[in-house]
Amino acid sequence: MVGDLIRLKLTIQRHTPSWKRVLGLLAGVLAAAATWAAVFFAEPASRTDVLLLVLAFWTAGWLVGPVLTSGAAMLRPEYFTLLPLARRGLGAGLLASAFAGVGGAVTTIAALALIPYALVTATGGTAIASVAVAVVGAVLLVVFLVALSRTVYALLGAAMRTHLGVELAAVQYGLLLSSMTAGWAIVRPVLESIPAFLRDGFGTVPARAALEWTPFGLPLRAVGEMAAGRPIPALGSLALLAGAAAAVATAAIVLLTPHVGARTARRRRRPLGSRVLTRARLLPASPLGAVVGKELRTWWRDPWRSLEVRSAIWFGVFIAVYGAIAGVPEIAGLAGAAVALTVALSGANLYGQDGTALWQLVVAESPATVRADVRGRQIGITVLFGLPALVLSAAMMAVTGIFTYAVPILAVLIALLGVGCGTAVVMSVLGATPGVDPHRRVNATDAGENTAGIFAAFQIQLWATAPTAAALTFAGDALPAWFGAATLAVASVNAVAGAWIGGALATRRLAARLPETFAKLR
Questions:
Q1: Which residues contact 87 (CB under 8 A, 6 or more apart)?
Q2: 412 near 468, Cβ under 8 Å?
Q3: Which of 28, 94, 209, 258 could form a disulfide with 81 if both were Cys (CB 3.0 to 4.6 A apart)?
Q4: pTM
């Protein structure tokens, strides 16, 4: 069975886009090469510290990578529920299949950097024993990393059934997005300190004492003990690593066992904000009002839609944190703009997120209903992302005191929200990507992977806000007082034009190809 599962996974991988395979292989090879280079280029006194940090990055990559790329969800346990297979045996087979592929191969190559580390560290006649310990430690480390990755991925999927789990996943995504955009404020000083770190290691910072007792530090500790001629502590470190690997492997097998119970936990309260729509009537009794109400409720109540909103908010919060750490309060002022920037990204697959629910629009197809559906989705996503963006911008300006940037920040917010909602519906129609239907979702990435659409939406949103950006380039102290109002007027026109054009294009395309879009999502 294990061989069949591995062949099935490799077959699925061969049918993924070639650029993804090439990019993953290139990134993995470079990371493995950097691990080996750390052994040879670090100074003898800092070699252990450098490898500890490198292996810590490998651990972080295995924790975050599968969640972001959806690679761990190729073989879903529920696919095999009806087959006459032992449940625990199936879980073990799914775990074994996780080792097959580029990730497991490059991680093994990187872990084998422990062999040259053992050779350069060994003294006297301990070289052979140190290499043997390095090989065993490398194998156990790979087992631990892959099993830990699958365990965390499965736990995150289980946590998506609770409010706390959604919030934790949102913090993770928000931290990643903010690191990719504003992380340079912290990464630049770190990169400048690499030569000193290769020379001195952690120095007086007692980081090694803590890291060497972590699972990724235990193989280094075992090799070091054996190289120093102390076999008992070396074997003890290997035993601890083996115990940690066995524990996470057992947890992964349990979590990979097909689940046949309820997909989501029963709610004990209504989501915050949903009561607003159920009291006095705030929306018109029309198709447009019905779609807006449905969208607002869906964004609040669906954990996967709610994850998008919360990730955007945490994205803005962490942008402000990076600005505070770097001592640049102007970056903190862009926290609300960061939330508005995610409108096009989060909404680039609206119809794919709804899954086969599009049949309702197919049954009631008419030009009016299609138009109301598109415009209602635009209004819903603008309200849900626009209010947090405005509140966060106001809060950051109050904290940092950069009120002189109020007009540019507001102009950017207006332009991004308008253009973003127009871009979102266009990409949702042109690049609708089928995912797991809402009632069958388990993991955080089950709402559908639309990497190309997200990238295209990001580029379109940036280029479509060029008029507002051009107006802001003339900002300065010598400009007349009316220039601020003119800038806001340009941003408003930019936003309205982007929203109207995007909605019109999406309406025309969806009306012309509604049955084909539904067939694609099926």
A1: 257, 258
A2: yes
A3: 258
A4: 0.71
